[in-house]
Every structure is written in C-alpha cells, then in structure tokens.
Fold each of these.
Amino acid sequence: MQLDPLVKPRSVAIVGATDRPGPGRTIIESLGRIGFTGAIYPVNPKYPTVLNLTCYRSLTELPEAPDVVVFSIRNPLIPEQVRLAVERGARAAVIYDSGFAELGADGARLQEEIAGLCREAGMPVCGPNCMGILNPPARATTYKQLVMETSGLAGNVGIVSQSGSVCIAMLSDLRRFGISLSVSAGNEAVTRTVDYLEYLIDDPATKVIATFTETVREPERYVAALDRAAAAGKPVVVLKVGRAERTQRAITSHTGGLAGSSRVFSEVLRAHRAIEVTDLDEMTEVLAVCQGARWPRGRRISVVTGSGGLAEMMLDNATAAGLDLPPLSPAERSEAERVIGRITGDGNPFDAWGNGNYAVNLPHAMAVVDRSDRVDAVVYCADTGNDAHLGHPDRVLENVRMLVAAAKTSSKPYYLMGSRPGVMNLHQVKALRESGLVQIGGTRQGLGAIDRVGRYMTAPKPPRSSARRPPPSQLAELLAAKPGRRTINEHDAKRLLAGFGLPVTREHRVATLEAATEAARELGYPVVLKAVADEIAHKTELGLVAVGLANDDDLARAFAQLSARMGRLDPPPADGAFLVQEFLADGIEVFAGVARDPDFGLSLAFGIGGTAIDVVRDFTLRMLPLREGDAEAMIAETRGAALLEEFRGRPAADVASLAAALEALADFAWQNADHIDEIDLNPIMALPNGRGCVVVDALIVARAEA
Ligand code: ADP
Ligand code: MG
C-alpha cells in the first residue's frame, strides 16, 4: 500500500470537526500552525462552518477525493463513515478512538469490520486507538496533540510507536533532535509498524528510526525490513516491551524452556543489526548520539573528566554495564603525566585535574587519548544545567570551545556528557550542534548509547561457511522410518550427531544383563547404566540412571533396579532398552541446545552447569545460522565461563573443542531445520584442555506437524 496519502497528505478531511475543544478542532488548528498548504475539509452535518472553514454535511459532498480522512468520532459511528470515505475515494484514514481490539471480542469484531473495508479499498489506516501522525518536514499533521512550537520540530528521527503515550513522551524532549515523522500506530488494524519501517527506510529525511513495539506482526517481513534498514545505513532503535517470559507452548526440552520469546527477540535484533534499548532514557541517548556528524566506528570509549569522584563512579557503572573503556598504555600515560602531573587509576576514565591547570590539562588529556588507536570515541564529562543557580556564566561555553577545538583536528566523534540523562544546558547543546557535536547524558545511558552505535557501526561477522552446505538426510530418514515419531532417544540422537562430528560417549544399547555385562567389560569399568526409549525424555526423574558402576556386581544390581522401574512405567515404553556407557569422571558439565521460536525460527543456547541450568539460567543465545566467532563468544559471555578456566588447582577445560561442538550442533540443526523443534545436549562434559569434550546425554524433538 502507498503510505504517502497517510503520512504526507495534501488534503485532510476531518469527520467530527467542531469549534469546541477536542481533536476535531485541534487537528485543524495544528494544520494551520504547522504551515499546511493543502486543502482542509471539516465534515459535520451540524455546522455550516468550523473555524471559519466551509464545513461539509457529509464525506460524499466533498469537492474532491481527500488524501486522508481523520475520524474524530466515537467508534460505533465509524464503520458507516468509513464506508462513505471509501465511496468518496479517500486514499487513507486515521482513527483515534479506542474501544476496539484492545478491549476484547466485540471491539475486535468492530475493528475487523473497518479494517476489511479499508483493506479492500487499498486504503492505509493509522489506528484505531492512536494519536495519529506528525510530519514536520512535509508540514502536515493528523496528530492529536496541538502543535505549539514548530522551530526545531523537524529533523531526521523517524518514530513509530504502538503506544500513543510513548509518542507523547518521545516528542516531549526534542532538545537534541527533531523528527522526520512520528507515527502513533495504535492497534495497527491495517497499517503496521513494518509498513512504516519500510516507508522510513526509503524516506530521505530520515537518518535514524526509533520504534516502540508491544507486538511484532508479520515477523518475516519485519526481519527483512531490519536487514534493508541496515543495508541502507539507517539504525533501527527498538524498545520492545513485554519482556517478562511466559511460556505458552508445550515444551519437552530444557532449551525450549530457556529460549523464551523475549531473549530470542533480543537475539533477532542483534542478528539483524537493530539497536535494542530497554527504556526511553537509553532510546533518547542513542538518538542523540546519531545526531553527531561522526559516528563511533567501534565500541572503545575514552572518558576524560576533571573529577576523581566522577571518574570512579563512571568506572563502576561502565564495568557493570560491560562497556569497553580501555586503560592508557604506559607510553600514553607517561606522555599525559609529562604535562598533567600524576594520574590516578588506569587513566580511563581519565581524571585530568592533575596539577590543577585545567585549561592546559584537559586539552592535553584529549590529545593523548585521541591519538590512541585503541579508542573509537572521546567523551568529556562535566555537568551544567539550564538556569543554573551557581557557576560563572562565561564558563558555560568554555567546555564547548575546548571540545570543538579538539574535535577539529580529529577524525573521531567527541561528546560532552552530563552525569545524568536529560540534564543539559541548551546554550551548550546549540553551540555543540553547530560544530556537528552532541551532548549526551547519564554515565550508563550516555556511554551505553555510544557503545550501541559503535556496535552497530562494526560490520557483523559473516555467517559460517559450513552453514551453507546442502543438508544430509539421516534425520529425515530416521523420521520417515517411524511415522509420528516426536522424540528421538539419547542413543539414536547421539548417532546422528556423531555423524556431524560431535564427540559422544562410547556406549552400547543392550536388552539383557548378559549383553550389558559384556558391553561393560568391553568399555572398561566404571560404567553408567541408563534406560533408553523415545518415550523417556528425562531419565533421572524416574530413577533410570545409575552412574559410577565399578564392577559386574554393581552393574547387575543396577540392572535389576532399572528393569523393575521400567516395568512399572505406565504406559510401558514400546522399545525400552538399556544403555551401557563409559563413565566420565573429571569433566565440567555444560549444556547446549536448540529451540524453535514460532515467529523467528531456530536459536542455539549454551550454558554452564548441566542440570542446574533451569535454576541458574546462566546461558547465552544466538539465532541460527551461526556467524563466525559466535560459538567462542557464546562461551565467553556466560557468567560461569570462569569455571572453564583453571580453577582451584583444576586444569582449564578444552574450550576450543566446546566451540567446535557448538558449531557442529548448529550445523546439524540448521541443515535439518525443517525437521527439528528442540535439541538438548545436557550435559556435555568439558574435559581438561587437550582432551576435548563429550556429549553425555542427547534428546532431539522432531518438528510437530503443522
Ligand atoms: P537425564 O535424562 O535425566 O537428563 P542424563 O543422561 O543426563 O539423564 O544423566 C543424568 C546425570 O547423570 C547427568 O546430568 C550427569 O551428571 C550424570 N551422567 C550421566 N551419564 C554420565 C556419564 N556417562 N558419565 C558421567 N556422568 C554421567
Ligand atoms: Mg540429561
């Protein structure tokens, strides 16, 4: 659908226009204030004129087909009016009123009735339950709030919000950026976030896109739009709410329970180069950073300040947030100290007060870090507010002058940062802007915004080349041999995985004690005895795992016990048997798995702690296919990764083999993607360095028939 008539209309009809206060009047006033040059058609059978404009009795009486019709009327009256709008050839509609799908079945029916009419007519619709659309560069508005001030309103930020109140919040702070378009999309009965995204990607006035999203509709189109935005060099900043995990699907594996929709969505955003933020402070700071003439080309930030206290606070915050503040090198340090005097800490944040001659020291500090090839962005932290009660007025622009001078001789982005978000001096903001620099705020939010944009600017690693190999068909064959098979037991799953290069335990599947004893002697004691059957996804709960069996007697006792327990299962497993398996005594238990998200497909999970994972929830996720370097990064990112290093006299674990196993699992899952819903490898034993890792337990859940 063509969005132009909706987002930059040349004529606006207002159904429910009135002289009385309310949206029916506000829109007309706002159109006047924003400098709208097109035709305005008030529609209301009650009045001959509204605000001195000719008022029409009905949409059908308009002298031309309007670009957009806004409906400032209550919802029961809307379907009939929409019908008239379609009849008159209107090209788009804005519906403000609530009481539709957000309220339940009756509202949903009414909404669908309207949406059906508009879709059939090829008419884009904003709403219902929305604030409308504001387009300052086009001097057009159907936004419900009165346009009060137009200077500084137009800019390069495109906003799409499913919440009207978030639109109000975003538009209430336009000190550092203006907007190219602001859409309060409401219930998205017809036109959706992804449609506006598509529009903004092609809109030359838009440089960065900010979205507030409760529900992602049409996930495939959404992801494709993110890719297109990345290719166009326009960051999409995403604030997604509803991040508390609720599992609504039936799930068999541990991984399925861990890879909830919110964690998966974050990974989808990462994989498709969108910038995720968690609140409006973070959002606003990212949009501010994007106003700079230069953007950080990496994530390494150097912070200069004149305060030891601020430096310590920033270091604490930056460390907790995982930000990269590289310390000064010894050479940089001695060059800095030559002029400044003694520097405390590791020089980042860099307390450049030194001998107190700040007019010399601060520029020198910035010159030193600017020359470092380990620094992507330079920040100067100093607080000033508007209408300050204290401080010499002449000093306000001194910091700006110093920053501008430093930035002039550099190719890196420079920022002035206040220690709180939202506190700033507008004279500074304006003076910085004139030199292509920006004010940011909040040691977490401001520095975090540089980090996010720096990550956006770092080209993503390519997908792993092996991920593109054609799929082999063993899994498909296995499933075809037994129609309706949903879970694939440990033994069969391991055979499949071994075919992909995953190291698995040496083991034998047996039915009798004689065969078990022979297998144990062949493997060498100690061994493990387990029940194995497709129907038994989790064995320990049923007492069907016996570890550390040292000899024939132990084995016989365990065999008798497990046989009895298996015999009591109701219903009894159809193909129940036993596994005799090598016992791995000196490994660290980790887990890896795959889960399918109904919207976004397969993800890979990795965590430390084997069975404790459900409680500890220390795990990382990536969407498939994996990219180069993902496997190593996943392992390093888990909090428990330290357990894999040398620890209390225990040797370091074989992390390289773990990474290789993760890649093999990812390849297996990706190449069999059509047939897999979930995989659990839990545990994988990470053995001491040089001895690899071994998959001890495996479960594959085949894809449920759609
Ligand atoms: P479940 O179906 O209950 O997950 P597992 O096969 O994972 O069964 O076994 C349960 C636990 O027993 C494992 O998490 C691991 O701690 C231990 N275990 C199982 N097999 C072995 C083995 N071959 N070597 C060492 N420990 C094992
Ligand atoms: Mg297990």
Note: The pocket of magnesium ion (ligand 2) is lined by residues 682, 697 (CB under 6 Å).
Amino acid sequence: MKVGFIGLGIMGRPMAKNVMKAGHELAVFDFNKSAVEELAGLGAYGATNGKEVAERSEVVITMLPNSPHVKSALFSENGIAEGLSAGKTVIDMSSISPVASREFAAELEKVGVNFLDAPVSGGEPGAIAGTIAVMVGGKKEVFDKFYDLMMTMASSVTYVGEVGAGNITKLANQIIVAVNIAALSEAFTLAKKAGVDPNLVFEAIKGGLAGSTVMNQKAPKILSRDFNPGFRIELHIKDLQNALDTSHSIHSTLPLTSQVMEMMQALKIDGNEKDDHSALAKFYEKINNIKID
Ligand code: NAD
C-alpha cells in the first residue's frame, strides 16, 4: 500500500519505521529535516511538504502534537488537503480534541476523503516495539479497510465508534494515567514522611490491588528521580485541557482531572514542562519539602 506519514517525532518516527518494515511504500514529511533524512535513508520517499506526501499516497497518517498542528498540516498552503482526492483516507493518530477531529472529518468529507481519528497509547517503548494500543473512531468500513495497516504498528486496534470517539477514549486513558501518577506520588510522600522506604512500599504493594501498569512503569522513574521523557508534562497538560474543554462543552465535570491539571501547571511554572509526567512527584516533593528516593 502507498502510505504517507507526517510527524516524525518521539512516536511518529518509530511508528513510520514499523509501517515500512511491514513492506508498505512510504512517503514522509516533518519540519525536522534530520527526521525525514533518517527515514529516507531507510528507503522512504522524503517529501518537502504535506501536499507532495498526499499526492503519492492512498492513505496519509498524521502523528502531530495537537489540534492546531493537525489543522495546519491538513489545510495550510501546500498542506495535505491540496494533494488529496476523492477516495483517499487520512488517519490522524495524534491525541487531539474530539471536537477538532469531527471538524476535520466534515471538511474532508466535502471532497470525498475519509477520516479516522486513531490516537494511541503505549508511549515510545510501545511505538518502537510495535505494541501500541490504537483506539479508532470513524466509519466502520474505513476502519476495516485499514485495520491491517494500523496493526503493523500495534498489538491492538479497537473500533470505538463514530469519528471523535477515538479521542474521547484517549482522553479517558489520559485522565486515568494522570490521576494514577498523582496518587502514586502522594502515597510515596506519605511513606517518606513516615520514615518508611518508598522502594519497599512499591515492592510490597505492586502485586496487590493497587498495582498497575502505570505503577510498574512510573514508580521506578520516581524512585530513581529519572524524569527524562517518555511522555512530557506539556503534552499531558494539552490532553487534560482537551479533556476539561470537552467535558465542559457537554456539561460534565471532572474534579480530579482539574486538580492534577493545576499540579502540572505549577510544574510548568517551575520550568519542568519538558520532564516526563512522572515528575508530578516533584510537585509533592516541593510542597512537603522532601525528596522521594
Ligand atoms: P513530538 O513533539 O516528539 O513530535 C511531533 C512532530 O511533529 C515533530 O517532529 C514536529 O516537527 C512535527 N510537526 C509539528 N507540526 C508539523 C506540521 N504541521 N507538519 C509536519 N510536521 C510537524 O510528539 P510525540 O511525542 O511524537 O507525540 C505526537 C502525538 O502522540 C501527540 O499528540 C502526543 O500527545 C501523542 N502521544 C505521545 C506519546 C508519548 O509517549 N510521547 C504517547 C502516546 C501518544
């Protein structure tokens, strides 16, 4: 299949490599020239803009930071939309606002182009290993057509409903992860202040009901104070903002999400926005005047 891939960052670069490894013909573009050159060195066509990628491809995958980046990649001058024609498909795998996904889908539908919102979880390790989880919204027949393509990057690809449902599912995921890391930091703070080694607390409880994938991945980072990303706080702030905006627009309220959002804002004010989201522990360290390690 002729596949386009736009956005070759922490996630997009390994995901694009996995699409190529599965034997698909790839055309790529990113503002970052060295990322394009790396993929071109592996056999991809290095394009100079999104339009060129779309002209050469039956389906274009985007993996960009947030809604404005996807909008610009799609609809700016020499963007993807200029190279699309009826029957082609865009699969946006970025984590963006579900409201924006629906707008983009409606705009592309006017010219006969299909759109799936297909955000992912699993982080950089999952992107490299080809084991990310993909949650997909859009027309079921379009999902079915590109299921195998998405599986070249993933260990699971799940249809969750009409367009926008993929990003609603991703926001649910991001709420659970954020609140979990905050709870982990809070619990380790209590242990440290009480004179109990947080490393032993982790060992003792990880096999019990409190144990989780979040705990297994993030506790070792907190306990060794390794805050290299991984998943940056600034991206998690973006996701929580999208969750709160979406929630307000449908008259629901997310009290825990708004609390963790304020913790992340405080970390950003202190210059920690490029840290991994496990650096939520730093917020607790600051207000309790301790070091959790
Ligand atoms: P990143 O910042 O590392 O990469 C984004 C890439 O997009 C950059 O290379 C940038 O140059 C490029 N870009 C931006 N605008 C562009 C445009 N208009 N045209 C072409 N290229 C453009 O981000 P990332 O960590 O790869 O995350 C991408 C998306 O995946 C985000 O929505 C993020 O929330 C989501 N995500 C990230 C992780 C993670 O662990 N990093 C996990 C799951 C989901």
Note: The longest helix spans residues 165-193.
